[in-house]
């Protein structure tokens, strides 16, 4: 409420309450006409005293008729006749205040109060009542000079303390006195932001006003409506605020006659605020839209006179309605038009140079830019908004510094889309985070905290590859800030929480010991992500898919969670498919998720039934990747190899599997790269194709050549990374040795490769006998059969080692047969 509105409210209240205060005076026995008049000075002669009483009586009658000017002339005559009488001084002072003649009123009321506070013959209760009336009237007269507000505040508190200490129901005059004093004190406190006490004062005033409005609606209903309106803007709870705005609307609409422009403006603003409060929940969006549209209709009519205040209110409602309609299907065009109209008005107002209007223009321009999401224009508009906010912050840091956070972060995220400008984007984000850290220490404002959290996420993402510890620290700080703010701040908090949870979970997933924490973070991220999904689907939908995908990959390692993992993985695949039209990388993630689904189906014992379809879909996606895409060849060959591995188990499809392996190898022949992934993929395909062909006598020698080529590549890789490639090398050596023994009938060559296989696999068999022991036992059993140069002791030693490594019943039985055969 601005100062002029407060003055109007206070003056209206005084007009209504003066009669009650005078009534309170007339009921005070010590000052009644029939009682002796106490005074610190000599009473006037009886005839003069009679004239004084006549003037006071006439003033009272004129006041009742609403003629305050004439009533003041009568009290002036009475005061000239009896300048020392306390009742004359008080009544004359009240009317001077009512007519805003503060220069005359203040010294008179000070003198009156000083005399009342001196020892005198007044009854104690009467004296206290008169002191309270004088203090309240003096406090109201001091409100127009802020230098006098400390004294006015003290006077008001003394009056309210006196009234609160009284026992039993208050008479009408004291209720009215409490009302005017509460309004005066709230005016002072409002400028000092003592919100809690202001709310308490207004609540007390409401109780009195409701009683008075029942008895005298013409005088008290406007003040009751204004008090409800003002209280709505002070309470913390949205529900309480909406209740008071609705009550204010009811009272304004009950006012008799044609509503004044001021009342219509108040109605429009109450509708606007109600629209804002109800727009926070999608289920109330229709009600919010109706409130905004009714407010807009009133404000268009009122703003026709060109008043800056009214045009500013019109622009605010246009902006708020646009903010709502942009989320509603089919209303995007109207939302854009409303933004444009609001910007035109606010740009004209901003030209006046007033900080408030410059801020409003920048804020609506920011909303419009986010709404348009036009990358060709966004950077320029964000810079315009940032420039305005920086200028305002330099002029008034306390009021505007926090507003720099939003455009700074948005500009950085816009620039980050260009890989060549990552350094510039990171610099802006560093500035935003540094500013945010300096602000949140002194502010509990949810918007500031959520905006700071939103800015930390992209900065952490940009630095995590080179400073993982700092990135993890930022992600954890975002979660710490946003968890308590869920549902209290803007959707920025949900977005930041979902992004930070996803990114931190990805980092922790790389550490097996942190998988439980990573799963919890993925789970935590799902709810806020789903809550904001409809706001920006191109942004949120692939991230929701990535969250489900990451969670599924961790759950599939837990036997009891595999069914849930498959559910999450299938949902992720559906979402990646929907997002594929927005960003090409979503198609790559879709293909990878399809491959993982195939693998999961195999783990669940349904590989043949359920694995081929997702692999075929992954292959179709990867074939569509651009020819120049460096990852295309590896992806396609991976898909072909996994499909071939799946279908080769069925005799009727072995030819098809062979075709896939050969196609994959031809594609790799086209690759000029000799990187580790390409060499590994080629060695694996050679190994698989060799194993497939070796059972066919016509292709046995080709199979041996393929296995030899595979072994050569595996040897290179094992030299570079023994821990990663020693095991597949041992498998390839065993396969070639077995081929020479069973298929090509050359025991000498078989022994060569089997010995190397046993030697190469020994370390892994010792370290991991559960997974590798059976393979090592098979190699040792076969070597014992094939190597004719072994003596009995050496052969027994091999068989004993094989028996020690064997884990499955099948391999143990195979070892027993070899022992029997030998």
Structural class: mainly alpha
Please tally the β strands and state the result.
0
Looking at the structure, what is the overall shape?
A: elongated
CATH superfamily of one domain: Tetratricopeptide repeat domain
**Main sheet, how many strands, which sense, barrel?**
none
Would you tell me the overall average pLDDT? 86
Strand content: under 5%
CATH architecture of one domain, by name, is: Alpha Horseshoe
Which range best describes the helical content: under 10%, 10-25%, 25-40%, 40-55%, 55-70% or over 70%?
A: over 70%
Alpha-carbon distance between the termini? 103 Å
Description:
- With 822 residues, this protein is an all-alpha fold.
- The chain has a domain of 159 residues: Serine Threonine Protein Phosphatase 5, Tetratricopeptide repeat.
- The protein has 38 helices and no strands.
- α1 crosses α10 and α6 runs parallel beside α8.
- The termini are far apart.
- The N terminus is likely disordered.
Keyphrases for this structure?
822 residues, mainly alpha, Serine Threonine Protein Phosphatase 5, Tetratricopeptide repeat, 0% strand, elongated
Question: Helices, strands, pairings?
Answer:
Elements: H1 3-26, H2 46-64, H3 68-81, H4 86-98, H5 102-117, H6 124-142, H7 149-165, H8 172-190, H9 195-215, H10 217-232, H11 238-253, H12 261-278, H13 285-302, H14 308-325, H15 332-350, H16 355-372, H17 375-395, H18 397-400, H19 405-416, H20 422-440, H21 446-463, H22 468-482, H23 491-509, H24 515-531, H25 537-555, H26 562-579, H27 585-603, H28 607-610, H29 612-623, H30 632-647, H31 654-670, H32 676-693, H33 700-720, H34 722-743, H35 747-767, H36 769-786, H37 792-805, H38 809-821
Helix pairs in contact: 1-4, 1-8, 1-10, 2-3, 3-4, 4-5, 4-6, 5-6, 6-7, 6-8, 7-8, 8-9, 9-10, 10-11, 11-12, 12-13, 12-14, 13-14, 14-15, 14-16, 15-16, 16-17, 17-19, 19-20, 19-21, 20-21, 21-22, 21-23, 22-23, 23-24, 23-25, 24-25, 25-26, 25-27, 26-27, 27-29, 29-30, 30-31, 30-32, 31-32, ...
